[in-house]
Write a structure and sequence with these properties.
Two copies of one chain form a homodimer. By secondary structure, the first copy, chain A, is α+β, with helices and mostly antiparallel strands. The first copy, chain A, has helices at about 50-55, 55-60, 60-65, 70-75, 85-95, 115-125, 135-150, 160-175, 195-210, 215-230, 240-250, 285-295, 305-310, and strands at about 5-10, 15-25, 30-35, 40-45, 185, 190-195, 195, 255-260, 260-265, 270-280, 315, 325-330. In chain A, a hairpin with a 5-residue loop joins strand 11 (about 315) and strand 12. The interface between A and B is large, with 51 and 51 residues.
């Protein structure tokens, strides 16, 4: 199945570049409400499924034992920008479990956001694992292992009990069978599993509604999503898409991006979850798709819908502030 | 016409993202030697055609009057990284014409290369127009206007005599009719014109071979391309694709990238020029395509061909240095 062109980038009166994509909206029972493209194809969710990967932190009782509130829980689901407050939060979570940065196995990298990188360059010699965009998830991993007495070293490996537990959770949520055949290694070294986009969306619909989940998992899932919606800065950072999406309508939109053009969202008031993937892996297109797809399920003509569509169809300016073109979603998003 | 998938990005055993593209190889007479995708479609060359836009600097006599050598000529065709040597070169060229940074109309921006941005953040308060990736081209524009006595202000505008001259040059080279209908505004505020990819490649084949060009234009064209091949650092910068391509086989490969996934190249020993465009505008795919397309026309099994194919099909590592997947070109590049 051919994935349709879902996002166009224009210059002058012409289309300069085109992005193809797939997307799906699912309810708590797994019913597909809307879709475009090949949504049965396997897609690596990458960081979009971090809220699923944070469930052991909740279900083990570690989050409660360490007194984690919304900020810590949101941060355990984060792909953050490595701002000062993010690095401090990672250090603080690790300290609750009596550990420090040396426990993290995610590696270190400079910030990818320009303004954050400039600040980092001026204030630190080099970044540590605390600045890694995945340090919140990894701090949560460390806390879960320490609390349950699991050997910490190697917690990123496929064979480690924590990753086996996450694999089971993701099978339960997505309905996909996960194993070495559909496993890859993520940027932060943990396993990532390709699942049909439909299954990924269904997993988030289950987390949102609790449908088909054990009561403890349903409660833990809802608490993580509510924490993200309550503290969106700790899920991403200043001017980031996830943060902006959750700030635009507090408590009404859960959203999380993943590398290579993935985005998931859930709408508590509608009981729906959705997932998109840009075929070519480009973030600008994944963002436009999820903005427009969420807008489709909001009050028609309402303030939030209008705001989201202005984020989906946005003007591009050059270094002199001159309008040079637009990013815009196509009819494939609305048919 | 559907553009084929030309580049795949893998993770584990699976393809995670796919890029579609178009590409064409043309000789000096305009004969298409090889192509894939819709090469008659209009494509904005963006910065890939900077050597064409530098012809007024040569043909006006300004380059000789100001004593410009290979470094200055290469820099007038550059999309550079804003390294210290680049900013200094822009200032030096402007000084030859009795002007300074205030004459530049390209706007200012921080470097996009991470290592350069970190250095800039630590050494300057904010970037000036000298650091703009197009400051070499714009310094050349300023020199051409000052030398010929043309009013300088507004040199970026469609109506300005310099842009009208460039429009005529590009029509002569590409065979396309250029006007407001296929005109957009580039990142540095000058007009950019969508031309069929085939015409763009033919333009560079004419510049390389001189076929069909007035002697003065043929000579100026060849001199600019030779300057780029002689001083590849001044065309882009440390670790940049254009620079690496021209360093791998000195004097045998001319190459220039453009925004939104465009790349052109020319091979003096073969009398061939080529152009590629990634449909979705992604640089990683444009680079893989041009590396593989150039390799196709080099000595089979030779050192340079092997090196270029290892650049086209490259391993991706994560923050811990673990191999997570590959960028690879598909059979569409070789059929």
């Amino acid at each position: 199945m051919q994935n349709p062109v879902t996002v166009e980038v224009t210059r002058g009166n012409l289309v300069e570049s085109r992005h193809r994509g797939l997307g799906v909206v699912v309810d708590g029972d797994g019913k597909v409400v809307f879709s475009f493209g090949d949504v049965d194809a396997g897609v690596f969710p990458r960081s979009a499924c971090k809220a699923m990967q944070a469930l052991p932190l909740m279900e083990s009782g570690a989050a409660d034992a360490y007194g984690f509130g919304n900020k810590e829980l949101a941060f355990s689901c984060a792909s953050h920008s490595g701002e000062d407050a993010h690095a401090a939060m990672a250090a603080s979570m690790l300290a609750k479990a009596g550990r420090d940065v040396s426990a993290l196995e995610c590696g270190a990298h400079w910030a990818s956001e320009q303004s954050v990188l400039i600040h980092q360059a001026r204030t630190i010699d080099k970044p540590s694992a605390l600045h890694n965009n995945c340090s919140g998830k990894h701090s949560g991993f460390v806390c879960a292992c320490v609390h349950s007495g699991t050997e910490l070293r190697g917690y990123v490996n496929y064979e480690h009990p924590l990753q086996a537990e996450i694999r089971g959770i993701m099978e339960n949520l997505t309905g996909a069978v996960l194993g070495e055949d559909n496993c890859g290694t993520d940027g932060c070294s943990i396993p990532t599993y390709a699942v049909p986009l439909k299954g990924l969306a269904h997993g988030f619909a289950k987390m949102l509604t609790g449908n088909g989940l054990a009561p403890e998992r349903a409660k833990a899932s809802r608490r993580l999503m509510e924490a993200c919606m309550a503290e969106p800065f700790y899920v991403a950072g200043t001017n980031r898409a996830c943060t902006k999406l959750m700030e635009v309508a507090p408590g009404k939109i859960f959203a999380k991006t993943g590398a290579e053009g993935v985005f998931v969202a859930a709408l508590p008031d509608r009981g729906l979850a959705m997932a998109v993937k840009c075929e070519d892996g480009t973030t600008r297109a994944a963002e436009a798709m999820i903005f427009a797809l969420i807008a489709r399920y909001l009050e028609n003509g309402g303030e939030v819908q209008t705001k989201l569509m202005s984020m989906a169809n946005r003007s591009m300016k050059n270094w002199n502030g001159i309008h040079v073109g637009d990013v815009r979603v196509t009819d494939a998003m609305f048919s």
